[in-house]
Design brief:
Largest sheet of chain A: none
Largest sheet of chain B: none
Strand content of chain A: under 5%
Oligomer: heterodimer
Helix content of chain B: over 70%
Number of domains of chain A: 1
Shape of chain B: globular
CATH architecture of chain B: Up-down Bundle
Structural class of chain B: mainly alpha
Shape of chain A: elongated
CATH class of chain B: Mainly Alpha
Radius of gyration of chain A: 18 Å
Distance between the termini of chain B: 41 Å
Largest interface: A-B, 22 and 23 residues
Number of helices of chain A: 9
Structural class of chain A: mainly alpha
Number of strands of chain A: 0
Chain lengths: 221, 243
Amino acid sequence: MTPFLVLIRRDLALSLRQAADALVAVMFAVLVVVLFAFGVGPEANVLSRISAGVVWVAALLAAMLSLDRLFQADHDDGSLEQLALGPLPLWSVALAKATAHWLVTGVPLIVAAPVLALMLAMPPDGLATLLAAMILGTPCFSLLGAIGAALVLGARRGGVLVAFLVLPLAIPVLIFGTAATEAALTGLEAAPHLMLLGACLLATLALAPAAAAAALRQAVG
Amino acid sequence: MTGSLHRFANPARFQRLARAVLPWCAGGAAVAFALGLYLALVASPPDYQQGDTVRIMYVHVPAAWMALGGYTTMALASAVALIWRHRLGDLIAQSAAPIGAGFTIIALVTGMLWGQPMWGTFWVWDARLTSVLVLLFLYLGYIALVHAFDDPERGARAGAILALVGWINVPIVKFSVDWWNTLHQPASISRFAKPAIHPSILTPLLVMAAAFMLLFATLLLLRVRAAIVEHRLRTLAMARARG
């Protein structure tokens, strides 16, 4: 087993040992959707009109929740220094951590998304596109989040700050993700939006680990 | 070339240079503002469709340019600070951030004031307006991050990386009007093509652009000079505290 996979398995084991932490993200997304239903009112055609955007915003906010813990525990107990000294380059460490974060928060959000959409009375023809867009979009949240989480290591109020830094960067993903779902709902072609979303994923996959590694290097000194 | 640039990384030499250049920048800004405002508000003709509302543009467009220019300055200074470990790069980036954020706010507010009579609304969620709003958030995020650490050195390093990551938004702002079908009009001034606006409007605009650029330079030099002195004071205080 390569060191990369070992690191992913270690992070997964740590997260699953406290399964409640992993479920908090999904519970938070459900709560956001419920709040929207109360805030906007129960009228089905209004809810179905805004359903795509609400599901995406709920997913994005939920992905932000656990970000500040991404490197913090390892930074506090010194494992991060060990990882920096180990055989794995730092960008690879950042990529492994982001992958583990996506597996723990992103995948449950993808699974929950159709249920959330149905709660908001989204017509069933949008569900397949919503799922495809979420599969492309949620890894971007984890990758961008890794940059933010690495930047705020050792900062005061890191949890709020990381959301403040990452949310503006995540706006393109939100726009294309919502646009793809809306296009499918209105009978237009969703493929161009999905391709742009795929381009976002490839770009963040290429650049975010390097940026996060640079930030980690500053943090471990 | 880098060798000659490295000479200016010495804070003492930078202070001397800044002291020499600063009066020229400040004076030039004052003259350009006086001339530009006269041309823009009095001498230039009202637009045949927009009437006098077009005069907002003379403040709005240069402010928007400097919002982008300020962020690029910040990103360049951050790159210098990260690559060559010049402390001066950090100080320049940190000094540029609030100025750039100020220009971004000016561009947004004047744009809203222009949009109300022209588009019938203060705000639309089109690509140009949204990306400039994101630019403001990036400025504010940078300022918040730099000040979130007890160790200013660590804040500067983290901020430099964020400034480089966030620079990706600058071309998005620039080309948003070409890439997306937006309400905001596309660029009328290009270096490579004949400008699409009449000289009677172009001249005051360019004078105002020069004024804004000189104002940016003046404020930046003032702030960097203050930051260098502050940094030196803190170093002295730390040295005294250590005994």
